[in-house]
Amino acid sequence: MVKDSVKIDRLDLKILMTLQQQGRITNQNLAEKVNLSPSSCLHRVRRLEEVGIISSYQANLRLASLCRSITCIATVTLSNHTQEDFIAFEKLVLDYPQVIEAQTVSGGFDFFLKVIAADMTEYLDMTNQIIQGMACAVNINTHVVMKEIKAFRGFPLDQLV
Q1: How many whole angstroms separate alpha carbon 67 and alpha carbon 50?
Q2: Which of 24, 74, 137, 152 suits 48 as a labelling partner, its CA being 20 to 30 A distant?
Q3: Neighbours of 26 (CB within 10 A)
Q4: Are 135 and 88 in contact (CB under 8 A)?
Q5: What is the structure's pLDDT at 4?
Protein backbone atom coordinates (compact mmCIF):
# COMPACT_ATOMS: atom_id res chain seq x y z
CA MET A 1 0.00 0.00 0.00
CA VAL A 2 1.43 3.37 -1.01
CA LYS A 3 1.43 5.95 1.77
CA ASP A 4 -0.41 9.16 0.85
CA SER A 5 2.20 11.90 1.29
CA VAL A 6 5.21 10.34 -0.42
CA LYS A 7 7.47 12.95 -2.00
CA ILE A 8 9.13 11.81 -5.22
CA ASP A 9 11.88 13.87 -6.80
CA ARG A 10 13.69 13.57 -10.14
CA LEU A 11 16.32 11.21 -8.67
CA ASP A 12 13.61 8.87 -7.38
CA LEU A 13 12.04 8.92 -10.85
CA LYS A 14 15.39 8.07 -12.48
CA ILE A 15 15.82 5.19 -10.03
CA LEU A 16 12.30 3.88 -10.72
CA MET A 17 12.62 4.16 -14.50
CA THR A 18 15.96 2.33 -14.40
CA LEU A 19 14.67 -0.44 -12.12
CA GLN A 20 11.66 -1.01 -14.40
CA GLN A 21 14.02 -1.76 -17.28
CA GLN A 22 16.91 -3.35 -15.37
CA GLY A 23 15.53 -5.01 -12.26
CA ARG A 24 18.77 -6.91 -11.63
CA ILE A 25 21.06 -3.90 -11.82
CA THR A 26 23.50 -3.74 -8.93
CA ASN A 27 23.19 -0.90 -6.46
CA GLN A 28 26.65 0.28 -7.53
CA ASN A 29 25.62 0.48 -11.20
CA LEU A 30 22.28 2.05 -10.35
CA ALA A 31 24.01 4.68 -8.24
CA GLU A 32 26.38 5.50 -11.11
CA LYS A 33 23.49 5.71 -13.57
CA VAL A 34 21.54 8.19 -11.43
CA ASN A 35 24.62 10.09 -10.15
CA LEU A 36 24.34 9.21 -6.47
CA SER A 37 26.64 7.59 -3.96
CA PRO A 38 25.88 3.88 -3.48
CA SER A 39 24.71 4.44 0.10
CA SER A 40 22.36 7.30 -0.88
CA CYS A 41 21.00 5.25 -3.77
CA LEU A 42 20.36 2.22 -1.57
CA HIS A 43 18.64 4.42 1.01
CA ARG A 44 16.31 5.80 -1.68
CA VAL A 45 15.52 2.34 -3.08
CA ARG A 46 14.75 1.01 0.41
CA ARG A 47 12.47 4.02 1.08
CA LEU A 48 10.64 3.44 -2.21
CA GLU A 49 10.15 -0.21 -1.19
CA GLU A 50 9.02 0.66 2.35
CA VAL A 51 6.35 3.13 1.20
CA GLY A 52 5.04 0.62 -1.36
CA ILE A 53 5.98 2.37 -4.60
CA ILE A 54 8.24 -0.57 -5.46
CA SER A 55 5.98 -3.52 -4.72
CA SER A 56 8.07 -6.42 -6.05
CA TYR A 57 10.79 -7.57 -8.40
CA GLN A 58 10.22 -10.25 -11.01
CA ALA A 59 11.60 -11.74 -14.18
CA ASN A 60 9.74 -11.25 -17.45
CA LEU A 61 9.49 -14.66 -19.11
CA ARG A 62 9.12 -15.50 -22.78
CA LEU A 63 6.39 -18.07 -22.25
CA ALA A 64 6.56 -19.35 -25.84
CA SER A 65 10.10 -20.59 -25.10
CA LEU A 66 8.78 -22.75 -22.26
CA CYS A 67 5.47 -24.13 -23.46
CA ARG A 68 2.45 -23.79 -25.68
CA SER A 69 -0.35 -21.63 -24.32
CA ILE A 70 -3.19 -19.36 -25.29
CA THR A 71 -3.88 -15.85 -24.08
CA CYS A 72 -7.45 -14.68 -23.84
CA ILE A 73 -8.93 -11.30 -23.04
CA ALA A 74 -12.33 -11.74 -21.42
CA THR A 75 -14.94 -9.13 -20.73
CA VAL A 76 -17.35 -10.15 -18.01
CA THR A 77 -20.81 -8.83 -17.23
CA LEU A 78 -22.78 -9.79 -14.13
CA SER A 79 -26.57 -9.85 -14.32
CA ASN A 80 -26.80 -8.32 -10.83
CA HIS A 81 -24.84 -5.26 -9.88
CA THR A 82 -24.91 -5.65 -6.13
CA GLN A 83 -21.80 -5.10 -4.07
CA GLU A 84 -22.10 -8.68 -2.82
CA ASP A 85 -22.03 -10.09 -6.37
CA PHE A 86 -19.03 -7.96 -7.32
CA ILE A 87 -17.13 -9.05 -4.21
CA ALA A 88 -18.06 -12.71 -4.84
CA PHE A 89 -16.77 -12.50 -8.42
CA GLU A 90 -13.55 -10.79 -7.35
CA LYS A 91 -12.88 -13.47 -4.74
CA LEU A 92 -13.70 -16.22 -7.23
CA VAL A 93 -11.23 -15.09 -9.90
CA LEU A 94 -8.46 -14.79 -7.31
CA ASP A 95 -8.56 -18.60 -7.03
CA TYR A 96 -7.53 -19.08 -10.66
CA PRO A 97 -3.80 -18.67 -11.38
CA GLN A 98 -4.66 -18.59 -15.10
CA VAL A 99 -6.21 -15.15 -14.52
CA ILE A 100 -3.07 -13.02 -14.61
CA GLU A 101 -4.86 -9.65 -14.59
CA ALA A 102 -8.32 -8.61 -13.47
CA GLN A 103 -9.89 -5.17 -13.31
CA THR A 104 -13.32 -3.77 -12.52
CA VAL A 105 -14.16 -1.35 -15.31
CA SER A 106 -16.82 1.12 -16.36
CA GLY A 107 -18.74 0.90 -19.59
CA GLY A 108 -20.55 -1.96 -21.31
CA PHE A 109 -19.13 -4.70 -19.10
CA ASP A 110 -18.08 -5.06 -15.46
CA PHE A 111 -14.71 -6.82 -15.49
CA PHE A 112 -11.73 -7.17 -17.77
CA LEU A 113 -9.65 -10.36 -17.40
CA LYS A 114 -6.40 -11.40 -19.03
CA VAL A 115 -6.07 -15.17 -18.94
CA ILE A 116 -3.23 -17.51 -19.89
CA ALA A 117 -4.19 -21.17 -20.25
CA ALA A 118 -2.52 -24.27 -21.62
CA ASP A 119 -5.19 -24.62 -24.29
CA MET A 120 -8.79 -23.74 -25.11
CA THR A 121 -10.12 -26.75 -23.18
CA GLU A 122 -8.51 -25.51 -19.97
CA TYR A 123 -9.81 -21.99 -20.63
CA LEU A 124 -13.36 -23.24 -21.21
CA ASP A 125 -13.25 -25.44 -18.08
CA MET A 126 -12.12 -22.45 -16.03
CA THR A 127 -14.81 -20.11 -17.39
CA ASN A 128 -17.49 -22.76 -16.83
CA GLN A 129 -16.34 -23.14 -13.21
CA ILE A 130 -16.49 -19.37 -12.76
CA ILE A 131 -20.00 -19.21 -14.21
CA GLN A 132 -21.18 -22.09 -12.01
CA GLY A 133 -19.52 -20.54 -8.95
CA MET A 134 -21.64 -17.40 -9.09
CA ALA A 135 -25.18 -17.03 -7.73
CA CYS A 136 -26.11 -14.55 -10.47
CA ALA A 137 -25.84 -15.00 -14.22
CA VAL A 138 -22.43 -14.26 -15.73
CA ASN A 139 -21.79 -13.39 -19.37
CA ILE A 140 -18.21 -13.88 -20.54
CA ASN A 141 -17.15 -12.56 -23.94
CA THR A 142 -13.77 -14.00 -24.98
CA HIS A 143 -11.18 -12.63 -27.37
CA VAL A 144 -8.25 -14.92 -28.19
CA VAL A 145 -4.99 -13.03 -28.62
CA MET A 146 -3.54 -13.88 -32.01
CA LYS A 147 -0.30 -11.92 -31.68
CA GLU A 148 1.16 -9.73 -28.97
CA ILE A 149 2.23 -6.44 -30.52
CA LYS A 150 3.58 -4.66 -27.43
CA ALA A 151 4.16 -6.26 -24.04
CA PHE A 152 4.14 -4.28 -20.80
CA ARG A 153 7.67 -3.05 -20.10
CA GLY A 154 7.07 -0.47 -17.42
CA PHE A 155 5.15 2.72 -16.86
CA PRO A 156 6.08 5.93 -18.74
CA LEU A 157 6.91 7.68 -15.46
CA ASP A 158 8.54 10.67 -17.12
CA GLN A 159 5.16 11.43 -18.73
CA LEU A 160 2.89 10.53 -15.81
CA VAL A 161 4.58 11.95 -12.73
Answers
A1: 36
A2: 152
A3: 10
A4: yes
A5: 59
